[in-house]
Amino acid sequence: MAKAPAKVPTKTPAVRAASAAGPWLYRGSDVPQDKAWVFGVLPNGLRYAVRRNGVPPGQVSVRMLIDAGSLYETDPQRGYAHLIEHLTFRDSKYLKAGEAIPAWQRLGATFGSDTNAETSPTQTVYKLDIPDVSPAKLDETFRLLSGMITAPIFTDIGVKTEVPIVLAEMRERSGPQTRIVDGTRAVFFAGQPLGSRSPIGTEETLNAATPAKVKAFHDAWYRPDNAVIVVAGDADPQALIARIKQWFGAWKGAKLPGGKRPPHPDFGAPKAPVGGDPANPVGEAKVMVEPDLPRVFNYAVLRPWHQVHDTIVYNQGLMIDRLGIAIINRRLEGRARSGGSYLSASVESQRISRSADATLVTVTPLTDDWKAAAKDVRAVIADALATPPSEEEIAREVAEFDVAFKVPVETQETLAGSKLAEDITDAVDIRETVANPDTVYGIFRSSIPLFTPASVLEHTRALFKGTVVRSVLITPSAADGTEADLRSVLLAPVAPSSGSRLAASSLSFKDLPPIGEPGKIVSAESAGLLGIERIELANGVRALLWSNDAEPGRVIVRVHFGGGYAVIDPRDAVYASLGETALMDTGFGNVGREDLDRLATGRKLSLDFDIQDTSFKMSADTRSADLADQLYLFAAKLAVPRWDANPVVRAQAAARLAYEATNASAASVLQRDVRWLLKDGDPRYALPNPAELAKASPDGFRRVWSALLKQGPVEVDIFGDFKREETVAALERTFGALPARDPLPATGFAPRVPAPVGDPLTLTHHGDANTAAGLVAWPTGGGNAGLHEARQLELLAQVFNNRLFDAMREKIGASYAPQVSSTWPLDLPSGGYFAATTQLRPGDLTAFFAATDKIATDLATTPPTADEIARVTEPMKQLITRASTGNGFYMFQLEGGAFAPEKFSQIRSILADYSQIAPERLQLLARRYLVADKAWRMQVVPGK
């Protein structure tokens, strides 16, 4: 079954006999079937699973799985599984070259999100999410998909066109992070195909691809008895099955020698080191020097992968494993917070690509001394291997597990069909089953008696025993150590660190003092939309409340306060970035970070925080039972903030370690700098560099944020499945008890896009010499009065994106995924921009800038065609229709509405603005904003 703990299995705790019959996914398992699924097998061997699901309404999600990925390739075929994925979308029986993307867009599906595919080492999955289904749409969907899968057309021109696109994708993923992933894979899976089988392939094999070579891989693996089709959506399951039979029932697959597909390849197994110590089998090790990356020490305890019997007992064992790991990770985090030698460390267990069963340990040192950090982490683990955990520790993690498994039960009606379909494809991939949330929770509850100190110790010890232990050190300096040093660190004896165990204590909300004297509601009125209520408290706090059952079991809370970036002094810019990371961790009153964790035990509570242009925002997804306490946490942060130094110091260390990595590729430099550069160099939007971080201090952090937390109006938005009267009372006790707020300072904040200065602004990166990035931005506008124009500019951006995609990817293969977007700040009078970005080869930058200039000129000169309009308005219409069935859509559109009631009238026009527009209107917008002499250009090129 797929991915515990999100899916662990079964509803009925009683163990029953494993079935040799029944649905194909459950054969050999005693996990009760999720009865919402209908399983079957066609005479040609194609397996299917279908179910009715109405989230979102009107959508059908189709997943077509081919049980073959990069591990199925021969050496000359490396990259072909992924290349076929591309070619399948290019040319097939019912979709000729260049027709696939427009065809799916006309059906309302957005390319890249609603229509996509993924290739992994073990499978290839085609993904379609089709909105606003009708019988005709279903027929067309299955017809087009059947042609893609069963009858793609491989031509010389298709291969020659698509290979450069795949190579562009390879370039965009290149850089130190990819080298680290590939290098670590080579060490951890030495001697196995997985060690060298990245799905992207190699330049040599891709450039050698021909239609015949590609077809040979397709003939071998794209066969009905090696495929699964999964459909979940708002349609009759029998109607879905009928279409599967109609369009895939005649599929036979290519004729092969012997008449059968090849046997699945042997993925090998980890091998013990020759002459090593069986009790401590430390094997391969590698030091990887990457000047732009922080130090990280990784090691893996590896065991052979084997097919499991996905039974109730097996899943109970998984739960004990995860309990032991959770205890270790909590101890590791506690030691790091209290001043350990590492910034962070974690342990996880994975069954990887049917190649190994692994326990993975990751250590990020706080300083250059990675050996001390590794020793400290190993000491925490050694303690977990030497002595059973306490009953209190187990009880704490069991409470966490309980809420993790119970929340899906409470919210299962909100599970999207796309997620449910992917659960099946994941299960097929790992050779396990699926179970509904009730089943998962049932088996968890039945497992609680098994969570004894002795059983947790036994399972933890098993997790750290293996065939071989392999390690990698990522470091900016070759002087940090050798491979022999890595082995020595792992072989060195360590004394168990019992000090890492967290002291047993309890803390609950009833132990906390009240925020203050509860306030009273002074006004409550209908907002005139969907039953949403606008409330004002006596202290000036305002709220939007919408109690509804659209998403059972879920409540969304957003708290907007203060003035955001606009009120932060530019001289204090470093504290903006540190605030996003550390502010919530500093606690409140007498409650520190560890106390916050204890309060959250067994609860669905969160403390997310981010900064917007003109407000600060605290966010949480919670449930009705925890809503009052969630409100207390947020209100207490404003009323009685705490100023622990440790979270700030850790945030500084993390930011310092991460900063150099931003120089590692063209994309990372662009991502780091584009936001503040497009604000004309405003430092508040910049990522602080190490020199700026070094000047920051906990005292400075307190000075800045203690003032900011007191300023400006407060709006609390609560949408979801909650009880109105109880929530109003909780608001009165929490936000209603806040003291009067300080006024916001006048800032005159009006950011602007910089004026063009001739040649593009040029920045450099330290990564691969064959990669670059480019950006073109035109200033637009800002302000709520321009809302309709802002929405229409987004449609213009999508038309522009389709043309740029065709010019840069399809015609010259220079870029894998160029992006065009429009940004229009509704709460600022200026600062909006229309921008095109891409990654490409340095030599293709000229072509990119020329293409953007030409497209901008053409759009201003000639209106887009009716088909171009349809290709962007239909997917946008469907996207809005689907999104508007959930509370998150309305909360995003209406945020600030407690103080700005015009938001409620503006939302009524959203569908019309995005789905009804004349070509001449888009031409007018292009003529108004895409002006050649206002275009600001930036490029990121390799450094010397």
UniProtKB/TrEMBL annotation:
<dbReference type="GO" id="GO:0008237">
    <property type="term" value="F:metallopeptidase activity"/>
</dbReference>
<dbReference type="InterPro" id="IPR011249">
    <property type="entry name" value="Metalloenz_LuxS/M16"/>
</dbReference>
<feature type="domain" description="Peptidase M16 C-terminal">
    <location>
        <begin position="210"/>
        <end position="399"/>
    </location>
</feature>
<dbReference type="InterPro" id="IPR011765">
    <property type="entry name" value="Pept_M16_N"/>
</dbReference>
<dbReference type="Pfam" id="PF00675">
    <property type="entry name" value="Peptidase_M16"/>
</dbReference>
<keyword id="KW-0482">Metalloprotease</keyword>
<dbReference type="GO" id="GO:0006508">
    <property type="term" value="P:proteolysis"/>
</dbReference>
<protein>
    <submittedName>
        <fullName>Peptidase M16</fullName>
    </submittedName>
</protein>
<keyword id="KW-0378">Hydrolase</keyword>
<comment type="similarity">
    <text>Belongs to the peptidase M16 family.</text>
</comment>
<dbReference type="GO" id="GO:0046872">
    <property type="term" value="F:metal ion binding"/>
</dbReference>
<feature type="domain" description="Peptidase M16 C-terminal">
    <location>
        <begin position="717"/>
        <end position="872"/>
    </location>
</feature>
<keyword id="KW-0645">Protease</keyword>
<dbReference type="InterPro" id="IPR007863">
    <property type="entry name" value="Peptidase_M16_C"/>
</dbReference>
<dbReference type="InterPro" id="IPR050626">
    <property type="entry name" value="Peptidase_M16"/>
</dbReference>
<dbReference type="Pfam" id="PF05193">
    <property type="entry name" value="Peptidase_M16_C"/>
</dbReference>
<keyword id="KW-0862">Zinc</keyword>
<feature type="domain" description="Peptidase M16 N-terminal">
    <location>
        <begin position="59"/>
        <end position="173"/>
    </location>
</feature>
